Amino acid sequence: MAPGSPEWVREMLRQATEDAAYLQAKWKWLMAKYPEQWVAIRAPRVVEHADSLESVLDKLAARGIDSAWTTIELLSDRTKHLVL
């Protein structure tokens, strides 16, 4: 699947939709388990977590997981607006 191809875009959207559904369904559990942490999600599971975004990205790279295909979220009760 070539990056940017229609198949690639469809797969990215499918994965992002699954990740968003997982986040919504498991939000309270995730907040209790990983408060104030960054989590990397590939539905149906958390693949990495850390206190900083940089640490999560480093851990993903070390495991050979493409961060472009991974939903990364800061689990916090405080409202933050980030553009990444």
Description:
- With 84 residues, the protein is of the alpha+beta class.
- The protein has one domain (6-75).
- It has two helices and three strands, in the order αββαβ.
- A three-stranded antiparallel β-sheet has the order 2-1-3, with helices on both faces.
- The protein is globular, with a radius of gyration of 13 Å.
- The two termini are 25 Å apart.
Provide the fold topology:
Layout: H1 6-33, E1 37-42, E2 45-50, H2 53-62, E3 71-75
Antiparallel strand pairs: 1-2, 1-3
Strand content: 15-25%
Neighbour order of strands in the largest sheet? 2-1-3
Question: How many beta-strand elements?
Answer: 3
Return the average pLDDT rounded to an integer.
Answer: 90
Number of domains: 1
Helical segment count:
2
The largest sheet is:
3 strands, antiparallel
Task: Give the terminus-to-terminus CA distance.
Answer: 25 Å
Class from secondary-structure proportions: alpha+beta
Unreliable residue runs: none
| Helix-strand topology string | HEEHE
Overall shape: it is globular
**Rg over alpha carbons:** 13 Å
Classify the helix fraction into a percent range: 40-55%
Briefly characterize the structure:
The chain is an alpha+beta fold and 84 residues long.
Descriptors for this entry?
about 45% helix; 2 helices; alpha+beta; about 80 residues
